[in-house]
C-alpha cells in the first residue's frame, strides 16, 4: 500500500477479496518483520542506524543528546514488529500507512494485517515528526472507530 491509495494489497483485494489479501500477507509480509512477526526490542543504536541510513559517516556531539528538545533525550528501548529498514521516511510501518490513507478498504486491510500479525498494533512511528504515535493514536486522530475497537 502507498499514500497514493494503491499497491499490491489493494490489487489483491480487488482480485480476490479478503481471502487473497490474507494469503498475500501471510506469505510475503513476515519477512519484513522482526522474527516473522513476533517482534523484538528496538534500542537506540538500531534507531540511529535507521535515522542516518543515507549518511556515510555521522558524528553526533554529546551536547546534542543533552538538549530537552532532542527526541533521543527521552529515548526508551521498546518493542517493535515491523523492521526499521523497511519503514518509510517518516518511520512509519505499513499499518500506519493504511490508517493514514483513511478509506474503507484501507481500514479492512489494516484489520486483516493486525489479525495476521497482532504485534503490529504495538508499532509506533519512529520519525521525529510523529515520534511515538501508534496505530491506536492514528486511528483516533483519523476518527476511525472501526480500528479503535
Automatic annotation (TrEMBL):
Keyword Repeat annotated: yes
GO annotation, biological process: calcium ion import across plasma membrane
Keywords tagged on the record: Repeat
GO cellular component, one term: plasma membrane
Any one Gene Ontology molecular-function term assigned to this protein's record: calcium channel activity
Keyword field contains Repeat: yes
This protein's name: Uncharacterized protein
Organism from which the protein derives: Phyllotreta striolata
Amino acid at each position: 500500500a502507498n499514500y497514493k491509495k494503491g499497491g499490491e494489497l489493494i490489487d489483491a483485494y480487488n482480485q480476490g477479496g479478503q481471502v487473497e489479501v490474507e494469503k498475500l500477507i501471510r506469505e510475503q509480509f513476515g519477512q519484513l518483520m522482526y522474527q516473522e512477526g513476533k517482534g523484538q526490542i528496538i534500542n537506540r543504536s538500531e534507531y540511529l542506524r535507521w535515522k542516518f541510513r543515507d549518511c556515510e559517516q555521522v558524528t553526533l556531539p554529546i551536547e546534542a543528546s543533552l538538549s530537552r528538545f532532542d527526541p533521543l533525550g527521552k529515548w526508551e528501548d521498546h518493542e517493535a514488529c515491523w523492521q526499521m529498514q523497511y519503514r518509510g521516511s517518516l518511520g512509519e510501518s505499513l499499518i500506519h500507512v493504511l490508517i493514514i490513507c483513511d478509506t474503507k478498504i484501507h481500514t479492512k486491510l489494516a484489520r486483516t494485517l493486525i489479525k495476521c500479525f497482532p504485534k503490529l498494533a504495538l508499532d509506533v512511528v519512529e520519525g521525529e515528526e510523529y515520534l511515538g504515535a501508534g496505530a491506536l493514536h492514528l486511528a483516533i486522530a483519523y476518527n476511525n472507530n472501526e480500528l479503535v475497537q
